[in-house]
């Protein structure tokens, strides 16, 4: 299964790539400064079953091609956004991302999920590693909050399961069941 990873210049990107490869994905990585014409060429050549937007150290406004990619290609390709990628999904559909009530970096939190297929086999309350100062403040349709921690959205999904955002890091050693969550994200692809 081909996966396109958009790297937001983050040290966690290759941990995520390793995790996805361990689940059987063939991952090609491009940085977020890819020109739109080059992105179109990559998508045409690769025909990925999933586009993953990596974590990163900035805000959606500074995430290069990510928000335009979501707006242009979400009808054609399933998209999984992690941390900054999650925030990009929220902004791409008109939501609001702002300062988290409590910035958390390298901290474990208790996450409660709503039981969607993304969380099959995961206890309703699990621990997850968080590394963020920003978070989704207003979640726009078609996205729905499907997991929270401390009142902060930790996962958003569209009803069809083609758009998924995770504020926490599934690849982090602090996240219990992170591999299972990523496997579920891959398993439910059309």
Q: Which features characterize this protein?
A:
190 residues; alpha/beta; Rossmann fold; 5 helices; 9 strands
Characterise the protein shown here.
- The chain has 190 residues and is of the alpha/beta class.
- The chain has a single domain, classed as 3-Layer(aba) Sandwich (Rossmann fold).
- It contains five helices and nine strands.
- It has helices at residues 13-22, 36-46, 66-73, 84-92, 178-187, and strands at residues 2-7, 26-31, 50-53, 79-82, 96-113, 125-138, 144-149, 152-157, 163-166.
- The chain has a nine-stranded mixed sheet with strand order 2-1-3-4-9-8-7-5-6, sandwiched between helices.
- A hairpin with a 2-residue loop joins β7 and β8 (152-157).
- α3 crosses α4 (84-92).
- It is globular.
- It starts with a strand and ends with a helix.
- The model has no long low-confidence stretch (mean pLDDT 97).
| Overall average residue pLDDT | 97
Give the H and E element order: EHEHEHEHEEEEEH
**Spatial order of the strands in the main sheet?**
2-1-3-4-9-8-7-5-6
* Biggest sheet architecture: 9 strands, mixed
**Portion of residues within helices:** 25-40%
Rg, Cα atoms, Å: 15 Å
CATH architecture: 3-Layer(aba) Sandwich
And the CATH topology?
Rossmann fold
Provide a compact summary of the structure.
With 190 residues, the protein is α/β, with parallel strands linked by helices. It has 5 helices and 9 strands. It has a single domain, classed as 3-Layer(aba) Sandwich (Rossmann fold).
Topology of helices and strands:
Elements: E1 2-7, H1 13-22, E2 26-31, H2 36-46, E3 50-53, H3 66-73, E4 79-82, H4 84-92, E5 96-113, E6 125-138, E7 144-149, E8 152-157, E9 163-166, H5 178-187
Parallel strand pairs: 1-2, 1-3, 3-4, 4-9
Antiparallel strand pairs: 5-6, 5-7, 7-8, 8-9
């Amino acid at each position: 299964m081909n996966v396109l990873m958009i790297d937001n210049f983050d040290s966690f990107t290759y941990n995520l790539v390793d995790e996805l490869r361990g689940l059987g994905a063939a991952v090609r990585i491009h940085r977020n400064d890819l020109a739109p014409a080059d992105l179109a060429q990559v998508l045409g050549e690769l025909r990925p079953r999933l586009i993953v937007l990596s974590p990163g150290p900035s805000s959606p406004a500074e995430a290069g091609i990510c928000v335009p990619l979501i707006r242009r290609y979400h009808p054609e390709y399933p998209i999984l956004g992690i941390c900054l990628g999650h925030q990009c999904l929220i902004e791409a559909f008109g939501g609001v991302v702002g300062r988290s009530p409590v910035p958390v970096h390298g901290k474990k939190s208790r996450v409660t999920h709503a039981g969607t297929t993304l969380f099959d086999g995961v206890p309703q309350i699990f621990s997850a590693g968080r590394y963020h100062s920003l978070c989704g403040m207003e979640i726009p349709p078609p996205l729905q909050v499907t997991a929270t921690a401390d009142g902060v959205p930790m996962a958003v999904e569209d009803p069809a399961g083609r758009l998924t955002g995770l504020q926490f890091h599934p690849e982090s050693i602090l996240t219990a069941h992170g591999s299972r969550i990523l496997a579920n994200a891959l398993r439910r692809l059309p």
